[in-house]
Amino acid sequence: MKRKKEIENAIEWYKNKFAEFENRLNGEKEKFAHSIRRKGIERLEEVGFPTLKTEEWKYTNVIPLLKNSFVPITEKTGEEIKLSEKFYDFDSYCIAFYNGFAEGNNTTENALPEGVIVESLKFAVENHSELVNKHLGKYLKINSGFEAINSAYLNDGIFVYLPKNTVLEKPLQILFFDDADEGLSNYRNLIVAEKNSSASVVFNSAGGEGKKYFVNTVNEIVVGENAALKLYTIQNESAASYHIEKSEAEVKDSGTFKYYSFPFGGGLVRNDISVDLDGENINCHLYGLYPARKDQHIDNHTFINHTKPNSFSEELYKGILEDEAHGVFAGKILVSPDAQKTNAYQSNKTLLLSRTATIDTKPQLEIYADDVKCSHGATVGQLDKEQLFYILSRGIPFDAARSMLIKAFANDVLAKVEIKELKELLNAQMLRHFDGEK
What we know:
Blueprint: H1 2-25, H2 33-47, H3 63-66, E1 71-72, E2 93-98, E3 101-102, E4 117-120, H4 121-127, H5 129-135, H6 145-152, E5 158-162, E6 172-178, E7 183-193, E8 198-207, E9 214-223, E10 228-236, E11 242-251, E12 256-263, E13 268-277, E14 283-292, E15 297-306, E16 312-321, E17 326-335, E18 343-352, E19 358-367, E20 373-381, H7 385-392, H8 398-414, H9 420-433
Parallel strand pairs: 1-7, 2-6, 5-7, 6-8, 7-9, 8-10, 9-11, 10-12, 11-13, 12-14, 13-15, 14-16, 15-17, 16-18, 17-19, 18-20
Antiparallel strand pairs: 2-3, 4-5
């Protein structure tokens, strides 16, 4: 009964704040995004927030998040900080967001190939309304209150558009930096890769140390015919923060989509990726590495929907959990009756570095076609004592030996990173993570 009341209070809180939010928009509220916002606030009443009785959220208690009265950020706020120092150091096109809004001139400062658009969604609504209107809100399925409030408070995020036959030679790095105490940043990101285009995009979410805030992100992604998109999502949030992220992707014939998830920070983190393979000869790869320590809670949900024949999907998620950390992996692959000749593989492996760390894992296959090759599995274990003893016997100190085994375990995922400099940075960051550094 108490939890029900807390959920009702949270719904009422965001409903009341919505009226204030719309008033601040002035004339903007009459534009096309207004219908998305109205749908969002209406769905909030219908779907509410999940409980432990909600199947998709049975391992993640969101009541601690909902108890906080996070205030949706409706205008630029925050102290002057050097955001340029928060980017990962490798050659890339860069654009930064701070507490929910784009910084600088709302676009990259580097020259982009002709026709490529990389700018804030707020800016793109003004300059490219036809393109944005064609895709925004068309892929997200609002199944929880978090997706509902993201739509209701839709304001800013990144818009990436790749025209036909365009190859982005350098990676694109988007920094989302938050440090507003008790603030809610709703990022809405839209990536459209047209036929034969290709790009690597890095979402770098970071936050001020010790700050308590809530980041609620939705990514809508379209990968066109024979296009290739690699999306890296890296989270370096404050240990006191909450991060909920939902990604919805649609991939067309002969398209390739690769998604990488690296949550390093955040007190409670939920990453949810859903991919519709809407064509034949598609390649879909989902990779995740979630190192957690202290009392971190990291929840990974994946869903791949094979709708047509001759496509391939691969999932590999690895967790490394220490102290009282709690990890969750729930992955589902659906193969429809028409999706003959499907190849689909799913694996979740977890390394527990303490007796108090826990993992809940639930790999699933749902197959309605008879000519397929599909497999799934999960393993949970500790550091191999024989391997550890062997390394120690060679005179290597315990901490160094432990780091070597952790690195070896994580290497299957890190080896998939195709940006060499980023791979090295992530490898070093993972090891620092378990040495007690941020």
